[in-house]
Amino acid sequence: MNHAKTPLLEMRGISKRFPGVVALNNVSLEACPSEIVALVGENGAGKSTLMKILGGIHQPDAGEIRINGEPVTIHSVNDSMRLGIGFIHQELNVFPNLDVAANVFLGREPRFGGFLNLIDRRRIEAETEKLLKRLGVDVSPRAQVGDLSIAHRQMVEIAKALSLDTRLLIMDEPTSSLTLAETNRLLEVVKDLRSHGVGVIYISHRLGEVTEIADRVVVLRDGANAGKLEREEMSHDRIVQLMVGRELQQVHTPKTESTRPRYFVVENLRTRRYPDKPVSFNVGRGEVLGVAGLVGAGRTEVAQALFGVEPALGGRTMLDGEELKISSPQEAIGKGLCLIPEDRRNLGLITSWTVRENTTLATLTSYARGGLVDFAAESKAAVEMSSKLRVKTPSVEALVSQLSGGNQQKVVLAKWLLRKLKVIIFDEPTRGIDVGAKSEIYELINQLAADGAAVIVISSELEEILRISDRIAVMHEGNLTGVLNRAEASEESIMRLAVGHSKS
Amino acid sequence: MKKELGIFILLVVLCAITAIMNPRFLAPENLQNTARLIGAYGLLGLGLGAVIITGGIDLSVGSVLALLGVLLSMAVREWGAPGFAAVLLIIAAASALGWLHGFLVARVRIQPFIVTLCGLLFYRGLARFIANDETKGFGDATGLETLQSLAIGNLLGVPTPFVLLMAISALMWVLIHRSVYGRYLFAVGNNEDAARYSGINSKRMIASAYIVCAALAGVAAVIFAFYTNSVSPSSHGNFFELYGIAAAVLGGCSLRGGEGSVIGILLGTALLQVLQNLVNLLGIPSSLNFAVMGAVILIGVLADQLLKRKKLKA
Fold first, then answer.
1. pLDDT at A451 over 60
2. A282-333: pLDDT as tens digits
3. Do B199 and A352 touch (CB under 8 A)?
4. Residue numbers in A near B53 (CB within 8 A)
5. How many structural domains are present in chain B?
6. Collapsing DSSP states into helix, strand and coil, what is residue A449?
7. Residues contacting residue A32 through CB under 8 Å, at least 6 positions apart
8. Which residues on neighbouring strands pair with residue A337, listed in sequence order?
9. Nearest residue of chain A to residue B203 (CA atoms)
10. Residue of B53, B198, B200 to mutate for A, most A C-beta atoms under 10 A
């Protein structure tokens, strides 16, 4: 575009490695004043790491950052604020217990009254009012933030960024929890900011929004620049192509057809998060159904509804021809279902307990006589399961908190494998797990299916989904946008459904 | 086990100091009376321990003692109810109150502190109203000798309440440390979500702890009523919940839930009673009673913290 103008932000050759993984490799990004740059890429492509470097949370191993042509180093959020960089995170950082004005001026309230340090309420309310007016938001500075909608809370954050004299605003998935009308309103505000000279880096999975507002799209893939598109060149297809890359690997071992189709059937399941988006699918006995989609697509909500954690608002679930009525995990477990949750440290395990106690938590009554725990039997079961799953632990009396992520996940699995399972739901089974343990978990998933269970695997890693699934269901914002069989499934076809195209 | 050992040593040291400074500590009647009080207060501590293990609290215990004490006395003295039937009724009423607390905490999801604080106020007021603010008692307890002996009698020289506490403790020990129920109770207190995801009915577990706590308070209510033989509705049982909470905390229960032991609670109860006794025997002004107790609890918890930090470093 305007190459004569000094870019507001230049990031050149940024590299960052974490133990065992290269998060960013020689990545470059620039943004000019009055420009909206969309930053897109799959989950794990390196977008957040790049933005965390701008926010001073991570330091780059190599590369250079310039603001207005001046080289800078950013060591903290304060550095980044001083340079005029503002962030609107996906998880909003507002205090619901304070009012709007207090949120906008938190930590830098104008004071009066000398040593009394009283807050100049009149001034912060007046200035907040001005900012809200500029954003076209009809909210009182005295309104409690907790009473506001998500969209309005976001506007409070934007107002805060503006009050900090932000020249570069970074927005991470700002529309992920907004309604359509709210999204349009936000896009108007973003355009308005642009016309006032603010540079915007807009991170989004929603390609419709991206093509609507972005002046330029920068695509990251596997921690590197995958390409960029100017306004004229933008289209969904070209963006998706850049996101997944051309070299599509087709290395999956074909599996035998499932032994009994439509073993576990879900019809018009409605979740609390997406109450008007019914979801239907089925899994065969011995089949692995992958559930792909971007973060926030509503996959976890479906899993939690099936398992009774957050009971479904409506719909039918049938297992082997019998209708299931499930309103608690207890009932789900009784019917032979289990869920291996994504957040294993808080939901899957009691980390301050031993391997033994965690392993037997869901089956304790089987090792008890007259309500009393038979410690010998319990210990024996834990030892057997641990060695079967090759849990690396000094003994079953070691605390789970001392194990690695992969071994912790194996303990969660051990807990369930002591039961007779008919339907097993994995939610991001290999998140934060090293490569070796990953393939062991894949083997286990295959084994479980081969033993006759219906297996559902939710995963945001396309490679993983393609590797283990017999069929792949793809979700987008609460809708099930399509189910792909092995022949149809590719990174590209999944990505297309994941960003909201329907299967055609 | 370490935690119990620490408080056990503290208890032995305190007993030794008291015995050396005033040999009357070891006199049979003093030991008997201390044991009797340990028996009664221990029941409160055990019940509160169960609630604290789930991460909750029960502040209503003292007022429950007053309400039930008044009711018991009026039932047998004024309404002519047979003694044992009245006692059973009292324990049943206590359990019902516990059920109500459990329901409000686990189902309605009101914070335990608030539920039982309201209980503390409500039951106290109710007790005073029912008794017309008059002190109730059993007089010379004619016809109630057997019941009375439960509170003030001895069994082979050992005070009956202490014997009762030992029996109930044994039961509670098995329940808390050896049964599936106990394991689930700790699981729920430690991480309610993980417990729920493992198929444990966490609401029922939490509610049950309040029932156990109140039922034990009901048993203690009978003992305290006969022990004092004068239930003044405005002061009977005042602060008793705090003795129970203090005993549980001294004994290693964490107010965050998921930690605690029956033996620890017993040792904690004993420690508090020996302290009271020490204040009396060593001629410390009895007005300092609470101050001594507060200081010792603080020191105990501080020492525990320091030991834990040291262990983490090592």
1. yes
2. 999 999 999 998 877 899 999 999 999 999 999 999 999 999 999 999 999 9
3. no
4. none
5. 1
6. helix
7. A1, A2, A5, A7, A8, A199
8. A423
9. A328
10. B198
| Cβ contact, residue pair B180, A347, below 8 Å | no
Question: Would A9-244 and A251-336+421-504 be classified into the same CATH topology?
Answer: yes
* Contact (CB<8Å) B190/A350: yes
Q: Which residues of B fall below an 8 Å CB-CB distance to A? A: 174, 178-181, 183-184, 187, 190-191, 193-201, 258
Q: Where are the domains of chain A?
A: 9-244, 251-336+421-504, 350-419
Integer Cα distance of A147 and A96 in angstroms: 8
In a domain, B232, yes or no: yes
A204: left (phi over 0), alpha (psi -120 to 50) or beta: beta
Tell me the CATH number for domain A9-244. Answer: 3.40.50.300
Rg (chain A; Cα; Å): 25
Inspect the interface and report whether the beta carbons of A373 and B187 lie closer than 8 Å: no
The predicted-structure confidence for A391-441, as pLDDT tens digits, reads as follows: 988 899 999 988 888 889 999 999 999 998 999 999 999 887 776 778 888
Residue A340, beta-bridge partner list? A426
| Domain assignment of residue B72, yes or no | yes
pLDDT of residue A117: 85
For chains A and B, CB pairs below 8 A equal 64
What element of type H or E holds A426? strand A423-427
Segments forming the whole domain that contains residue B255: 34-282+289-303
pLDDT at A367: 93
CATH of A251-336+421-504, one of 3.30.505.50, 3.40.50.300, 3.20.20.70, 3.30.870.10: 3.40.50.300
Q: Give the CATH number, domain containing residue B57.
A: 1.10.3470
Structure tokens at A55: 């926010």
Question: B191: nearest CA in chain A?
Answer: A350
In this predicted structure, what is the pLDDT of residue A257? 52
Predicted confidence (pLDDT) per residue in A210-252, tens digit:
999 999 999 998 889 999 999 999 988 888 888 877 544 434 4
The verdict on A450 touching B (C-beta cutoff 8 Å) is no
Min Cα distance A347 → chain B (Å) is 4
- Residue-wise DSSP of A20-51: TEEEEEEEEEEE-TT-EEEEE--TTSSHHHHH
The ipTM assigned to this model is: 0.87
Answer yes or no: is B6 within a domain: no
Could you read off the pLDDT of A361-379 as tens digits, one per residue?
Answer: 999 999 999 999 999 999 9
pLDDT in tens, B59-95: 999 999 999 999 999 999 899 889 899 999 999 999 9
